[in-house]
Every structure is written in C-alpha cells, then in structure tokens.
C-alpha cells in the first residue's frame, strides 16, 4: 500500500518536467483507489457499491440467523437447568461442581428419587415433555452399574486382591410398570451396590419435547429428543461420589403437525438468502478479475524487486474472495437447514460468522484512503521481527515456570493441580488480574449452628440400621 | 484561547517599538481575562463574581433536591424488596434471576401463597399498607392466565395440533370475601391450569402506603400507589416457570391530612429557588452581552481567517448560556413539584443535573488563565483527527469480532448468548477486567447430602397423587 | 540537597586554582553527609548510629505493641460475631446488610428469641460471660420502643393525622425473674407494638467477660464490659424492619485476681520503653543542635536567595525531630497503659504508628548520598505545578460528573443512590476496577422449589390468626 | 555475549588489512556460536543436539511424573473433603473458615455426631475405608480435652483465680464396643466439659484406604493411612468455638496384594529414567569440557580487564551444569520412589521442577544468536543499579506505611489485623487490584425470615433444660 503512494508522489512532484512515461502512468492508475479513479476517469465505483451492499445484507442475514439460533440455545439450556432441578435431589442453582453424595444411604436415596420423578413424569412436570414411544411401548430407563470383576479390599490389613477388568450390569425400569402407582419405588427397586467394587452407576433415559415458542415468530416448531444420563462417579473410591447430569439433545422435524395460523416467512427468507448468494457471486467475479489484472501488470513490470511485485496482488481482494466463498457456502447450508433437510447448525454458524467478520474487517481498507493510516501499517511491519523474538523468549520463560510450578506447588495449592490451571494462573498473574494467590475468595456458606437437627444428622438412621459386622471388611 | 495570547505576546514583545496600533490594543483588551482586565483598567470582575455565586447556590440547590429524591427512591426500593419477601414463597435476597418453579404442585402452591398473603394483609404486614378503596369497596386481585386457543401436543409421537391465537381468562379475588377467615385459600381457589397450553399467569393487585419519613424533615408526607404484578412465565414450555414481581409506583399528594407540628420550610425553599432563577438570569444577560460584543468585534476585523474569527465568540459563554437556561427551567419545574402541582421528577433532575455539571466544568476556564494549560488544549486539537481514525478502525474490528463471536460461540458459552452480552464481554476483555473466560466464578451452594429428607423430596407427595394415566398425553 | 552538591562540584573542579575561599569550604563541610564528613575529618558518625539504633528499637516496640493490640481486637471481634449468632435468630455469616424481618409475627419471634437467649445465658453460652452485678442485683435488659405520639394512618383513603413528636416507652426484663425457668418467654412478655406508629425498638443489656488468653503471654487478663444494643429499625415504614446488633466494649483492669504462675515481663517491657525514650531524647538533642547550627550558617551567609537559604535547614532533621517527639509521648503513654492507669489505646497507636512511619521514611535520606537520586527529586519539584494544575482540572470535571450522575441516575441504579457511592463508583471506573456497571455480580441463592413446606409458608399460621377485621385500618 | 561480537566486527572490518593475528582468530572462534562454528569449520553441533534431545526427554519425564503426582494429590483432597462432610455435622462446601459452634449443646452434639459416624463406619461410608488393625484389635478414637488446672472465673464481679498450667484428660472410644449397635452414642459418652476452664478438645483417630484408581494406569495401588484430628478451639473464651479437621496422610506400599492383570510399565519407566541420566551425564561432560577450555583461554589472554575475563566462562554452561546435576539426582530419586523404597515425593519434585525450568530457560541462549537480543541484555545491565536504588526507596516507604497502617487501622478494619494482611493489602492497592477498601464484597446469605421454626430456634430446648442456677457463676 505504501510503495505505490511513493511512486505517485515521486511522479507528481516531477510532473512539470514530464518525466512520467506511459508505464508509470499506467501503474499510477492501477494503484489508485476508488475515489481517485472516479476523479481521474469518472469511472463509477461499482466494486465499492457492491461491497457496501454486501456489508448490509450479510449483517442482516447473520442477525436473523443468530436470533433463531439464540432461541434454540435458550430452549436447550432452560431444559437442562429444569432437568437438574427435577431429577437431582436437593439440587440448587450453580452447584454442579460440588454436587456429590458421601454416604451409602444417600446413594440409594438419590437413585430412588430420580426413578420416582421419572415414573411420575405426567404428574410432576409442567412442560410438554413425554416418554419416547417405541412401537406401542414406552421407552425404558436403564440403570447400569460398572464394577471390578473381583475385589477383596482390606485396607485394615493393607491387603487387596483385585481383578481390574470391568463388568457391567444393567437393570430396566419401564414407565408403565404397575409398581409406581402410589407407593414409593424404594421397596420395588432390587438394586444393591457393592461399594467396594463399583466404579460408576449410570441412569439413562429419553424424553421428548416440542419447542412451541417459534410459533410466535411464524416458524414451524421443532421436535427435540433429550437423552439424559445421570452418572454416579466412584472411580476414585474416596468416599465422595460425584453426580453429574448430561443432557444430549437432537433436533428433528416433527412428523405430523397442524398449525391454525399460516407459517410463511420461510419463503421470504429463502429469497433473501438467494439474493445474498447472487451479491456475493458478483463481488467474487469483480475481485477475481482485479486479481488477474494485477497478476498481468506484475508480469509486465519485471523491473521491480520481489517484495514490490507482491504489492500488485492486493491482499484485500484475497480476503474478500475468501469471505465471498464462505458466505455462498454458508447461505446454501442455511437454506437447507431451513428446508429441514440438514441440521448442521455449527458448520453453518462457523461459515457465516467468519465471512461476516471478514466483511467488517474489510471496511478498514477504505480507511486506508487516508495516507497516515498506511504509515501506521509500515511501522507495524518494521517492528514485527523484534516483537516475534520477544514473544519467543517470553514463551520459553513462561513454559519453564509452568512446568516448575506444576511439579513443585501442585501438591500444595489448588491452582497448581494441573498444567492447564498453572498456565491459566500464571497468565492471570501476568495480566494483573489476580494477586490473591493463596487466598481463595470463597463465599462461605455458614449454616453451622443454625441447622442442628436436620433429618440427616445421623440420629434417625441408627435405629433402622442392621447391627454392624465389624470384622467383615473382606468381602468377595 | 491560544491565538489571542499569541497576539498579546507578539505585541508585548515589540512594545518598545510602539508597533501596537489602536486596533491591536482593542483586540488585546477583548481577549484579556478577568484578572488582566482588572489590572489593565481596574474594571471590577462582576461576571466572575456572578459565576462564583452561581456555583455555590446551584450546588446547594442540587444537593437539597438530591437528598429529597434519595429518600423517595429508598422508600420505593425498600418496599419492592419487602414485597418480594412477602408475596414470593421462599424468596431470598438477590435471587431474582434464578427464582423459578419446576413442578405442577409448585405452581399451585406459589399462587395460593400469594393470594393468602394478600388476603391476610392486615395480620401479616408491618408497615402502613392498605388495599385501595374504590367507592366503599376494596380493590380486588386479578388472576389472569393466557393460553393457546387450542393445543394438542404429543411430543411422544412427534405430533402437535396448535392454534397460536392467545386467549385470556381472568379470575378475581376480593379481600372481603368470607373464605379467607381461617382456612387456607387452597380449597377455595377454583384455578386449574392446562400446563400444555398456558403461556403466562399474572397476579395483579394494588396496595397503598404513606411515606411518613419526610415528617422528620419538615416535609409533607406523600401518598404512594403500588401496582404489583407477579408473572409466571411459561412461554418457553421448558419445565421451568420463571416468576418475577414488578412494582409500579405512582406518587400523589394525600387527600386529607393533619400534622401537629408545622411543616414550614417549603416557603424558604421557594424563596431560595427564586433567588437562583434571578442569579441565572443576571448571568445570562452578562453572557449574551459578551457574545454580542464578540460578534461585533468579529464583523469589524475581517482581516483574520475563518478559524481565527471563530475565536471571537468565546465557547465558554455558550456553555454558560446553556447552563443558565437549563437552571432556570429546572428551578421553575422544581418549584411546581414542591407545590405538588407536577410530579415530573425525572425531567427536573435531568435539567438540574446537566446544568450543575456545566457550571462545574465551567470552572476550568478560570484555570485557563495560566498559559501552559492552553498548550495542552492545542496539542489535543492537533491529535484529534488521528484519534478519530484509530477509533473507526477499532470499531470495525470490534464489530467484526462481535458478530463472529455471537454466531460461533453463542451455542457454547453463556457470555455469547446475545449480541449485548458479546459486546459487553469483549469490552471487558479489552479493558483488562476479566480473563477468566470459560471459567465462571460461581459461588457453589452445596446442600447436597445435608438436606436429604426435606419435605420436598418427593416421598410425601406420592400417596396423595392420583394414579398416573400413562397414555393420556394428548389432551384437548 | 541538590544545590550543595552543585557548590561542591563547582568548587572541586576548580580546586587546583585555589578559588575555594574559607567560607565556601565551611559551607562545603556543612552540606557534607555523614560518609563525606567521615572521609574529610574522620568525624565519627554518631548521629547515623543513633538513627540506626532508633530504627531497630522503635520497630521492635511497635511490633510488640501491635501484637498485644491484635489480641484485644481479635477478642472484640470474635465476641461480636458470637453475639450475633447467639442473639439474632437465624443469623448467618456475613448477612449483616440483609438481616431484616418482614411480618408482624417475625418481629415478636425475634424479640422473644433474644430475651430467651439472654435469660438462659448460663445454660446456652460457652464462654466466660456473665450478667453485670449491680450491688447484689443482676443487671436488667431494657426493651424500649419509640413511636409517634399520635398516628392515624389510612393509606386506603389517602388520609393521615399524625403528631410527629416521638415518645419512648421502656420495659425491663430481669434475669432472676421466675418466669424463665422452663416455659418460653412468649407468654410472659406483655409487649404489644403498634406497627402504624412505632419507629424503633431497642433491646439493650450488658454482659461481662475476661480475656484469659493473655495469661499465656505472661500478661494480666483484662476485664471487658459489653454493652449490646439490638435495634429494630422501622423508620421508613416500608414493610421491612432492619435488625442490627451494636457491641460497645470497654476494657478495665479486673478488681480482684489471682494467678498461680508469675506475670512478670511487664517490668522488662517498662525498661525497654524507658530505653527507647532515652534513645529518642539523644537523637532529639543531636537534631536540634544541627538545626540551630544550620540557622547560624544561614544568618552568616546573606548572599544567597531566599529559596537557597531554605536549604540550610535540613528538612530531614525536622522530620526526625517530629518523629522523636511522637515516640517519646507515645512510649510514655504506652507505659501508663501497661500500668493499667490509662486505656487510651487509640491515641497511643496513632503516636507510635506515625513516629515509626517517619523513622522508616527517614531511611530514604541515606539513599540520597548517591547523586542520581537527587536528580529524581529535582525533576519531581519542577513537574509539581503542572501536576497540581492537572489535578485541579480533573477534580472540577470529577465533581461535575458526580453531581450530574447522582441527580440523574440516582433513581435508576443502586450505585448512584448517594453522593458517596457515586464518587466511589466513578473513582473505581477511573481506576479501571469495575466495568460491570449495571450488572451486579450477585451470587444467587436459589432455594425456590426445594424449600416448599418450610414452616414459614403461611399455611400453619392461618388457623391461629384472629379473624381479619377488614375495615379497621384507621386505628388510634 | 556482547564484547566478543564487538571483537568479531572490529576484526572483520579490518580484514583486508590482515590485522587479525592468530590470537584474535582463536578468540574469534572461541566466541562463535554453534551456527557460526558450523559455517566456519563445518564442525557438527553435537552440543546443540544433546541439548535439544535433553529438552524433549526431561519434559516428557516431568509430565509423566507430574501426572502420577496429580493423581495422588487428587486422592488426598477428595478424601479430605469427604471426611469434612462425614465427620463435621452440617458442614457444607467451602465453609472451613466460618465453621464454628456457639452454644453448649452444639459442642456436645458435634462430638456425639463425630463419634457416631466413626463407630458406624462400615454402614455409612461408601469407599474402601477401614479402621487400623493393631494386632487383632481395632484402633481407638482418642477424645482429649485440654484445660486450665484451676479456674474460678467470675466476670460478673470482675474477679478471677486461675492456674494457667494446662492439664490434659483423654478418653478412648473403641469401634468394637457393644454400645454402638443401635442406640445413639449420646447416652453412653460420659464426657462433661467444664466450659470455664477448657481450652481445646481434640478427637483423633486413624483410617486406612487403598487408592485403586492407579490400577487403570498399570500401576500398583498404594496404601494410605489417614490420621484425622478434629479440633474444638476455645482458647479465646469468646463464645465461639472454631472447629477444624486436619487430615495427615502417609503413603505406604501395601503388604500383601494380588492383581489379576499384569502391572508392567514400571520397567519401561526405569529404562527411560536411566536413558535421561545418561543424556544428562553426556551433556554434563560436554559443558564441563567447555568451561575448562574457557578457563584455559582466560589464562592465556591476560591482556583483558577483569570484567572481560568473566566473559570467557559462559554463564549458560554454568546453568546447564546445575540443571544436569539436578536432573541426575532427581531421576535417581524418582527410580527409587518407583521401586517403593523411598517416598520423598517433595524433594524429587523440587529437583525435577528446578532442572526442567533451567532447561527451558536455557533455550533463550539460542535466541541470543541474533545480535539485537544482546543489545536488550546490555541495556538491562546498564539500568540495573538505578532500578535497585528505586526498589530500596520504595521498600522503605512501603515498610513505613505497613507498620503505620497496622498499628493505627488494625483496630478498625479486617484487612489491617495482622502485618501479613496489611502488607498484602497494600501490595494489592499498589498493584491496582482492589480499590474497595472498606467495602468488603461479601455475598450475603439471607435466610432470615424464611427459616423461622427451624429446630434450633431455641423453643424446643427450653423444656428439657435444667432450671437455671443464677448465682453459680463461680465454679471450681
């Protein structure tokens, strides 16, 4: 960008002497920007107009796509939050990381609670959730436990005999079984866990729902399949069983539907998308033509150095071409998503997102019409090698400290437990985010003396417990 | 500010040669500041005195107005917090964003609780709150539900038949109905919600109160009308019904009142406001006179360039004039508010706030008496175009990243769900506020194993529930 | 500090020409520092030695005093936290700001709870706390309510009739009254609050304790008097009664005591304090002598300008003198505190703290022996006026924004409710602390659906409540 | 690093004049780096290759060691968290700092709860935890209380009579005692605490566990001994007894074990460690040879100044030698840990961590091949004295403020209670971390009015309590 201006100015300063030969004039014109070309030959700025139009339509398309995407994401999340509250006993907001049980009876209670909530779905749930119908049957809940094949663990004697092969045992609960019509499931579930051997228990089941919200926006509602997996993780055998709920979601077109009001604007959207594809193709042709012309000029002018020849192919054109190709592919994908034949939202969002970013970044080239801006770019280019060298040095030191901190402080502080956390922590420190190193700013939730006689205090449990067999720790 | 000084100095440096003609002397004097004029002609700084007086009185007025405003705002907020604790079951401090219910029985419980609290107002409430008396009747609570006209939703079969037209059904509870005199309202409320179809339930009612606190400040207490709306939002049909309480407040003069001690200082306040209006008018006249004189000098001295001619109209005067006009209007409005004829606090506060800000900013001009300060301003003026160009570039890049981040990361992270949040998040990052990107610093509230047998564990509910009809998901 | 060096260097550079007359040599020697004097005349650096000794002993004294102070503060705080847990029903860690009650029954419950805890002190409390014995009687708890003399408030009709004079009614509970020996105080307390009229209720009582912890450090335990005031604040009449606990503490020497092990090191401490006083007096004499000598030299050398003459009185000496005087007074006070004749910890801590700070700041003068350091100081002096001018401008703008923000945003956002908060908020913003303006980072505590049938759900209360009198809002 | 290049350039610039004698050429070659040597004499860069190999293998070793360490640390922590939930009544996540009890009955309840949980280990616990078997007996729990020998404390009369000697009384609970087979331990524990005299109560017991998780990684499981100490701290006698749980862990090889699948890769690991030791020894020999050669050249060239002679011994070699020695010792230690003969993880981690850091920092020397980098280092060297002087001044001021702040504000604000906290707080302020000085950003947990009739409200306790003896505060 800078060299041509140099040519221009050197030329124009000698204008009165007529030293500008034809070749120079041609080059001169080649490196002019839209404004200058308009003043020089009154050539109309078609390319510029197309770009401005493209910015407008691509942004509108992105916003519309983003808004519909946002609705789907919100529906997914709301459902996941609701499932956590409904299927995990005593779950509260944002306690995912610390949600765990610590005693044998807690494990059974939690399982029984989840099974009960599942069985009484139609009485408990608010929303439009239902079991999956396979043929005429309802889908079942699978309770699977994974355990070591053999495990005689006697920590008291420092001895153990283990076969680390993992076996799986499953157990199915069907919603239409008679036992859930009034009495708690507790008595009916014949589930016994061998706590010495078991690694994980998984409760897996499917629920279905329809996102009616889109009807308000003249869009066809989607059908959602939720595959819920509640995992009890005892892999560490550390008295603490972490419980997590995974919600796997798939979106499908509903089979049979009827909506009284007409759902129409899909067609308009399709036409708009087609218009965008057209615009981008025109922009693409313009840019490719300019690039080819640049390469021709480059072939004709061999007298310049290699780095100067690079200047003939405008880097902005390359970016515009990439952006246009991405937009075209993205828009085609989007049309297919709207026609419900594909559901690859993610690929489409990456394509449209990247292309829109490039389109907006491309606006900067028009600010390059002003001379001073180019000076800035030149300075940046000159400083680059030093900056890279500095970054290399810093990276080495950073890596050294990371490894050292991980291995030396890992045993003593939370923030050094894994390499990820060490690097994050050091980056924060460098960034000035966080000085309070060994002083976690935790919110302390103090119930202590207030909650004395809550039902889990252990008192009530004792009467019902069987007599303790003290010397029976070695089980087979 | 800078040019005149240039004139002065160039003039004064050649003084010994008597090159300063009459015109230059006149201009010289014109551009002198109050101090210099005093030393040159012993002219007394009336304008300066008026401005200093204005700063004092305007600030006092603002502080007094702000203090009385603060009291009203505090009363509003305290009431809203109290209503949330009184009408929302199990509400706790700052849980507004997560306050929601998840099961059918919770929805009914919440509605019954609110109705009961409303009916037993005089037994439960501490403050001076009462029902609205229309004629001789008490105001009623309206329970309105909005639902789809028709909705057969069968997620199990992936089918639905819906009429998205929204119907509204209302139901009124009157405080003087006999049924609330001892037994819970539960049995009496004939409210049944069709959870498949309903979108929102709204409980709306009015309460009245008097803010007695102002009596201590020798002010007349105001009468407040609170219009409370509790909304159960099921629009998403996602198992989660968010509950929010809106408190709409209107302030009115009380109809009939008697206070033993005299309420007096309104008159003094009125006089003070009148004095401020007077001061501002005088300042206004002075400034307009100076501006007119400046324009005259400008007309006489055509030999200067356009940008130099701009210097003749002092920009500080313009600001003072705007500030004075705002103060006058604001003060008049304030007097009417005090006379209880108008209640437009907001307009008045914008007027007085802006004018006071200008008055204080105006103090900077007196610091301009020192030469060095002007150098700073000159530098700033020179750097402005580059700064604007840089900002434009940065804005383009920022917008590009915003769109891209929203569409690509929106599905994966909370902070990218909507454009607002993306732009906020990126601004924070630029600002260096927040590095912990994917690591929400949440406070984890762990009740888990402690709260096992709380009444909501689901066990107690089973016996009372009707038998589950498994294949009845398609309701009309 | 800079000028003398100038003299020295200008002198020493011309040394070979013998231009340094006697006066210059004298001045030269006067401005030499300890090191240079030692090299010039082998004068031993007594003054320096005294200062170094002083730094050591003053710091040791401060640390010892600080450690004993720390223990007292910790005792005070631990007690206040414990009292909050013991006398406030349902109080939890760090909820002081939100601790409030919202219903009539809550108010009575809270009062009854506090009275009960007070009456059963010896059964409930762990520590060594007791009632105050006046003569042979136990101290009583005073329950005082403040209310308007007359108040007929009818918000329903927008009418009120009020006498804003405030009356006080007190009521005493004695620990040795018979009624607290088994049954709850609820029935016995004949307290009825007129919620329309009452402003505050205050529960005030005294407790005594002994801080035994000091015995381990060979110090005599102190006797503490705690005056506890629990205030129910209904001044706003906004349905929300804030409850706060104030703990006023006075420390006294115990009357009669016996400790088996000897409490001894007070004497050693006294001797150490005396030694510090001696050291400071010596340092004081040295410094005063130097200052007087400086003034004499100043009188002799009239040829210098006023600002140069200022240099003759070393500012470091002034600081050292102030520091010495403070240390002497502080040490005497400390000795009296140790002898238990005075208890003015605060004055003593201010004296010793300031003096130690000056002593440490004084260390910087010895770093001034190096020439470059003085250059830094010279630069700072030159830049000062501009810095001050900038600060003035910034202050004006800051004030303008503060007033404007307070009055215009005060109604809409928490952080603009009072002038303090606005100025704090703006300072934070300038400081780059806080961008999340309208987005309070609150921790949301969600119990919602979990805590359904807690006893306060309102159901249980209804049966016992008297029938509601609907038209009785106008009470006298 | 800079001087040699100076020599080279000065030499090469005069090359045409053949002024470079043999000595200069030799020095020239001596100061060449690997690349230059390769171009000059085609000498193969053995040293460089060894270093690159070392970086790779040392990093792999560290990562493997770190990962196995991480697993042990995670097991320790998970167990500690679980023990806190299991042995501390009502404990919740991250409340360690505020976990305390306030009433007499709470103390007893807490002790009884812990004893019960311990006795019912096999019924309550999930993981593989067991009592320690001494001979054929189970290990016992020791309940020890520490109290003053004599203590008659009468705060009511301001008198006390105390013997500060501390006595200890212990009491043992054996898991196989008959009394825990069904009834709560409450009645059986004959523990009475004299709250006036007791200082601390300690519950100490041992548990054993086996970390089975390592089986999945083909490693032999370790046996863990947990020594748990629950401390009730009443030293302050301030109504607040803090409770803390300490978990002391020792790792031992299990006595007798049998695993069905083969545990094998220890041998491969051993071979890899041996290979690292070999690599480091080769690198060590290379470096020592280079250092010796450098010293020889130094001896031969006496014409240079002392600081120039320092240049002959490359500081990078010194660092590499230290790093190699640390790696060799660390690797030997690691092999012994793997052979289960030593368990000094900490020493090993310090050795390996430091050596890896040095190895990575050593990479920077190769970036020194570029000339500009050395300029940076030269600049840093020149600026060092000034930087140190500035740091000294800042440290003095910092210390002064610390002492002053501690003593003067210590009584009024949490952040100034101890010297540590003051210095931390001031550092934060300097760092710009924290402006909100007196405004703790606490999360307020408000239960207040919600939790009215919880069992600890004090009502239920009254009937069972013995009549209060009011004048019995003087106990022996």
UniProtKB/TrEMBL annotation, chains A, B, C, D:
In what way does this protein cross or attach to the membrane? Multi-pass membrane protein
Look up the record and report any one GO term of the cellular component aspect. Answer: plasma membrane
Q: Which domain of life is it from?
A: Eukaryota
Keywords, A to Z, come to:
Cell membrane, Disulfide bond, Endosome, Ion channel, Ion transport, Lysosome, Membrane, Transmembrane, Transmembrane helix, Transport
Q: Which reaction does it catalyse?
A: Ca(2+)(in) = Ca(2+)(out)
Mucolipin extracytosolic domain spans which residues? 72-255
Report domain Polycystin cation channel PKD1/PKD2 positions: 344-433
Q: Where can this protein be found?
A: Cell membrane; Late endosome membrane; Lysosome membrane
Coiled-coil residues: none
Entry keyword Transmembrane: yes
Q: Select a single GO molecular function from the record's annotations and give it.
A: NAADP-sensitive calcium-release channel activity
Which spans are transmembrane here? 48-67, 270-292, 312-333, 345-367, 387-409
Q: What is this protein called?
A: Uncharacterized protein
Q: Which organism is it from?
A: Rhinopithecus bieti (Black snub-nosed monkey)
């Amino acid at each position: 960008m800078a060299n041509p201006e140099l040519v221009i100015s050197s030329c124009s300063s000698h204008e009165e002497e007529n030293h500008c030969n034809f070749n120079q004039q041609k080059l001169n014109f080649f490196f002019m920007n839209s404004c200058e070309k308009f003043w020089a030959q009154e050539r109309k700025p078609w390319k510029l107009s197309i770009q401005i139009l493209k910015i407008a339509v691509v942004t509108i398309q992105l916003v519309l796509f983003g808004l519909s995407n946002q609705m789907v994401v919100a529906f997914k999340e709301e459902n996941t939050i609701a499932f956590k509250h409904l299927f995990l006993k005593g779950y509260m907001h944002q306690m995912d990381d610390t949600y765990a049980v610590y005693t044998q009876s807690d494990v059974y209670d939690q399982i029984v609670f989840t099974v009960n909530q599942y069985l009484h779905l139609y009485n408990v749930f608010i929303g439009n959730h239902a079991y999956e119908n396979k043929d005429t049957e309802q889908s079942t809940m699978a309770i699977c436990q994974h355990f070591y094949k053999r495990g005689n663990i006697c920590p008291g004697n420092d001895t153990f005999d283990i076969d680390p092969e993992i076996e799986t045992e499953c157990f199915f609960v069907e919603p239409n079984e008679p036992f859930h019509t009034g009495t708690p499931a507790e008595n009916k579930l014949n589930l016994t866990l061998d706590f010495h051997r078991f690694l994980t228990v998984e409760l897996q089941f499917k629920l279905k729902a329809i996102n009616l919200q889109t009807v308000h926006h003249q869009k066809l509602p989607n059908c959602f399949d939720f595959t819920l997996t509640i995992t009890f993780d005892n892999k560490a055998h550390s008295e603490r069983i972490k419980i997590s709920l995974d919600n796997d979601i798939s979106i499908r077109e509903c089979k049979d539907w009827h909506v009284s009001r007409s759902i129409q604007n899909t067609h308009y959207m399709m036409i708009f998308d087609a218009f965008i594809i057209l615009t981008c193709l025109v922009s693409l042709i313009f840019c490719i033509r300019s690039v080819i012309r640049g390469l021709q000029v480059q072939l004709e002018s061999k007298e310049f150095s290699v780095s100067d020849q690079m200047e003939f192919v405008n880097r902005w054109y390359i970016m515009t071409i990439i952006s246009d190709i991405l937009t075209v592919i993205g828009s085609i994908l989007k049309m297919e998503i709207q026609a419900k034949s594909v559901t690859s939202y993610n690929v489409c969002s990456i394509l449209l997102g990247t292309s829109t970013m490039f389109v907006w970044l491309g606006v900067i080239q028009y600010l390059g019409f002003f001379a001073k801006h180019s000076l800035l770019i030149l300075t940046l280019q000159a400083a680059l090698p030093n900056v890279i060298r500095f970054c290399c040095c810093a990276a080495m030191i950073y890596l050294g400290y990371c490894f050292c901190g991980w291995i030396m402080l890992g045993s003593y502080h939370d923030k050094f437990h894994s390499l990820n956390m060490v690097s994050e922590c050091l980056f924060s420190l460098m960034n000035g985010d966080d000085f309070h190193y060994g002083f976690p700013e935790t919110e302390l939730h103090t119930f202590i003396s207030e909650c004395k006689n809550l039902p889990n205090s252990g008192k009530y449990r004792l009467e019902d417990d069987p007599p303790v067999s003290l010397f029976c720790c070695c089980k087979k």
